[in-house]
Design brief:
Layout: E1 4-10, H1 18-28, E2 33-39, H2 45-54, E3 58-63, E4 77-78, H3 80-85, E5 90-93, E6 99-102, H4 105-115, E7 124-128, H5 132-143, E8 148-152, H6 156-169, E9 174-177, E10 187-190, E11 214-217, H7 226-233, E12 237-239, H8 242-255
Parallel strand pairs: 1-2, 1-3, 4-6, 7-8, 7-10, 8-9, 10-11, 11-12
Antiparallel strand pairs: 3-5, 5-6
The chain binds NADPH dihydro-nicotinamide-adenine-dinucleotide phosphate.
């Protein structure tokens, strides 16, 4: 009866692998808990969330496609940056059924860099992309003390809009709309979806990369994208996409009150 339940909501649900990662962590830590995948369509989201409020042993739930934006209006509280980003990927349910939303993409990414001893404070960063993941990463980079951030995106208006929002939240950092040339930045990040498929074009010009630059991916599969291969051949330090996910899983397990991992 004390089993701590949490859920992951998605539509479609078949591709969702998070329960495997989190349930393995629970087992390893001897926690009486389980994360269950729940298939929820957009029109049923409010009803399901109301049901979640009433479930007394529900710790919370993970939110994926297509609910990350729609969930905001259904939470009682949303962390400040998650509000500015306009997306939530974890909701914690307290004992009174109140729901608090978090967006962990950026924090997971930054934790991965920290784990690899890649510095952020007073560094300059180039970010390719202005979609969901790029939004979270831009806010996290600015929050963690990057002194200059260049954002480049195929649809320039989306990068401009992102710069507009992040600069209001973190005015100490300097912002610039970028081209495909990442020259002169300590850290270069690909947060576009280019690289998922072998036939994809490169998300940025790799020709000007120099060995003092670090190039980071957030694509998990393939582990070595064409961008990382090109960056390596230029002598850059490279950082793969998997740590971002692993760190998010650790943060999620913590937020869902299952365990505090060492
Ligand atoms: P979005 O759809 O929100 O954003 C996609 C981004 O890629 C946009 O900036 C888009 O530009 C750009 N893009 C897509 N196709 C092209 C193209 N043909 N040419 C140029 N630019 C293109 O996706 P997400 O932000 O949710 O996800 C992006 C990537 O991040 C995915 O590969 C996903 O797997 C990965 N990811 C990894 C996580 C992790 O934990 N490691 C977590 C979350 C995401 P435009 O605005 O012009 O359309």
């Amino acid at each position: 009866g004390n089993t701590r339940i949490s859920a992951i909501i998605a539509d479609p649900i078949h591709h969702v692998k998070t329960p495997q990662g989190i349930n393995a962590r629970l087992l390893a830590n001897h926690v009486d808990g389980v994360l269950v995948p729940v298939h929820v369509s957009a029109d049923e989201l409010p009803a399901v969330v109301n049901g979640f409020r009433a479930m007394k042993n529900l710790q919370g739930f993970i939110v994926t496609v297509p609910h990350k934006s729609a969930i905001l209006a259904l939470c009682d509280e949303v962390e400040e940056d998650a509000q500015r980003i306009g997306a939530v990927n974890v909701v914690r349910r307290d004992e009174n059924g109140r729901l608090r939303g978090y967006m962990l993409d950026g924090e997971g990414f930054v934790a991965g860099l920290k784990g690899a001893n890649i510095p952020l404070a007073n560094q300059t960063a180039y970010l390719a992309g202005a979609g969901g993941a790029a939004n979270a990463i831009a806010f996290a980079l600015a929050k963690n003390g990057v002194k200059q951030l260049t954002i480049a995106n195929r649809t320039a208006e989306k990068a401009e809009d992102l710069i507009d929002r992040v600069s209001k939240a973190y005015p100490k950092c300097q912002y610039q709309l970028g081209s495909r040339d990442p020259s002169g930045h300590n850290l270069v990040v690909n947060a576009t979806s280019l690289g998922l498929r072998t036939e994809d074009a490169l998300p940025l010009d790799t020709e000007p990369l120099t060995p003092d630059q670090t190039v980071a991916e957030i694509i998990m599969q393939p582990a070595e994208t064409a961008l990382l291969a090109a960056a390596k051949s230029k002598g850059c330090q490279v950082h793969p996409g998997l740590p971002m996910l692993q760190n998010q899983l650790a943060l999620m397990t913590k937020i869902l009150a299952f365990i505090e991992e060492e």
